[in-house]
Design brief:
The chain is α+β, with helices and mostly antiparallel strands. The chain folds into two domains: 80 residues; 233 residues, BirA Bifunctional Protein, domain 2 (2-Layer Sandwich). 37% of the residues lie in helices and 20% in strands. The strands form two sheets. It has a seven-stranded mixed sheet, sandwiched between helices. The termini are far apart. The relative contact order is 0.11. Bound molecules: 3,4-dihydroxyphenylalanine. 3,4-dihydroxyphenylalanine binds next to strand 9 and strand 10.
């Protein structure tokens, strides 16, 4: 018993001196001294070993010890909440703060968002589709039947355990999936990742990104296509950009065209980026082929539409002055962090 009283005295000193700062310090104190397995609970358990004639006296001492401990806890807690240590010493506000690293948007995401938002302002809404696709949506429905030579331009990756599946070679699969839903008119812009079986170099990769557009309604004409795309390039590159359309071939459009803009680097004078032509090819487009409409149960006598598709990497290379497409997917933080704060 005497020994216990002595012990209490030394605990009292220990508690008095306790000075771990902050809310964590207060919590640690609570667990050690007041918790369910803490000192005070243990001492209460000792009551049963105290001789009956001293129980009252010992009970009072213990109670007083408990109140002392609780008072200390309350002051620690309060100090913790106010950002002070129990000794009342202020935190040094001149110390540097904890640095929270801020990430950056990927240049491909920034370019995709730019493109998409211009079309959204024209009333196009965003549609997406699967990257693992079947032959019908990637090729056949787009008027690229099996053994058609145009398929050679878009070799891709097949899945050996599921020969009917492939990685989509363009975002045009989304056109088909949206038209199949049967809701017209349709005005969509479709961003996404696409794949091609190509050798990787500074200029080409086995995967890249595209944005596809599609507008189907009654009386949609080539003039609408031209005006929409003209608006787009002016918003994107400024009012002094020049545009030209060259006849081209895509199985899913008729007629088809390729659209070029005046080279943004040399302003049309000729440089090694535009191969001294003064023009940069930026997208393919055309009027949706009647066969494609028929494949999606749309009456080509009643409805017409235009479509276009463009790559995202190329404009991003030009805008941010990047000279190697592989940088986009290497995840090198030294490259990525240069885009901090860029929108
Ligand atoms: N899918 C074509 C490609 O990847 C791009 C394209 C051209 C999409 C013309 C279209 C279009 O919708 O009308 O090369």
């Amino acid at each position: 018993m005497e020994q216990l009283l002595q012990q209490l005295e030394s605990w009292r000193k220990e508690i008095d001196a306790y000075n771990v700062p902050g809310a964590e310090g207060a919590e640690q104190f609570r667990i050690t001294y007041l918790g369910t397995k803490g000192l005070v609970k243990n001492l209460m358990g000792e009551m049963k070993n105290v001789p009956a004639d001293r129980k009252r006296e010992f009970g009072q001492i213990l109670n007083e010890f408990k109140q002392f401990t609780e008072a200390k806890y309350n002051s620690l807690k309060e100090a913790g909440e106010n950002g002070q240590s129990a000794a009342g010493v202020d935190i040094d506000l001149t110390l540097p703060g904890n640095v929270i690293p801020v990430g950056s948007r990927h240049p491909i995401s920034m370019m995709r968002n730019r493109i998409v938002s211009i079309f959204q302002r024209l009333g196009f809404s965003v549609a997406e589709g699967p990257e693992i696709e079947d032959d019908w949506h990637n090729f056949t429905a787009l008027n690229l039947p099996e053994h058609h030579p145009a398929r050679d331009m878009q070799d891709t990756f097949y899945i050996s355990t599921h020969p009917a599946w492939l990685l989509r070679t363009h975002t045009s699969n989304i056109q088909i999936r949206e038209m199949e839903k049967g809701k017209l008119p349709l005005r969509i812009i479709c961003p996404g990742r696409v794949y091609r079986n190509e050798t990787i170099s500074a200029r080409s990769h086995c995967f890249f990104h595209q944005v596809e557009g599609l507008y189907i309604d009654e009386n949609v004409s080539f003039a609408d296509l031209k005006q929409t795309l003209y608006f787009f390039v002016q918003e994107m590159y400024g009012n002094d950009v020049k545009v030209r359309f060259r006849p081209s071939y895509f199985p899913f459009t008729e007629p088809s065209a390729e659209m070029d803009i005046s080279c943004q680097l040399c302003k049309g004078a000729g440089c090694n980026v535009c191969k001294y032509t003064g023009w940069l090819e930026i997208l393919g487009c055309g009027m949706v082929h009647p066969k494609v409409l028929e494949h999606c149960n749309i009456d080509p006598e009643k409805y017409t539409g235009f479509a276009f598709g463009m790559g995202v990497e190329r404009p991003a290379l030009l805008k941010y002055g990047i000279n190697d497409i592989r940088l986009f997917s290497e995840n090198d933080v030294r490259f990525l962090k240069q885009f901090r704060g860029v929108v």
